[in-house]
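Subject: Sanity check before I submit

Could someone independently write out the structure tokens for this chain? I want to compare against mine line by line before I put it in a report. The sequence has 179 residues.
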Amino acid sequence: MIELEHFERSDFQQLMEWIETPAFMLQWGGPHFHFPLDEGQLEEYIKNANHKDADTMAYKVVDQETGKVVGHIALKQINKKTKSARVSKVLVGDKEMRGKGIGQQMILEILKIAFDELELHRVSLGVFDFNESAIACYEKCGFVKEGLRREVVQNGDRYWSIYEMSMLEHEWSKVKQIT
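---
Independent answer below. Compare away.
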């Protein structure tokens, strides 16, 4: 089991260590960050995050059994008027914890915040089309593919495509009943 706690300056070093390559940085942070990840970028990331009226809530993922930080996740573009937000920066950083269902737990916890606490109507995310394990995780959690945005990000001489996925509040009600 995991719990989400606000991501703070004291967590910067751990996150920077997990982001080992430019390609991995692009997968985690999109085009808004540049490699190598540094404290200045992370300061900017959390500058207006994690307060009552913030449009970004950034979390470290803590293994309840060991107390160890094992990942990172965020809810961004929180819009109380349109009752929507976007899941982003999803990372099971501790390689020993990958493949153990931590990603699914992270998504379900962020959805509890989005739908049960913030009372949102829609939560979306983008995932690169080659990230089959993440896509499977999101689908297990109840996300639906809406479409493919073709070749939207360049990595070296290749372009990556992104699936847009979403969940609506009535779909979350069904997911909650079976989890």
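---
OP: Matches mine. For the report I'm noting this point. Strands lie at 2-6, 57-63, 69-79, 84-92, 122-128, 144-155, 158-168.
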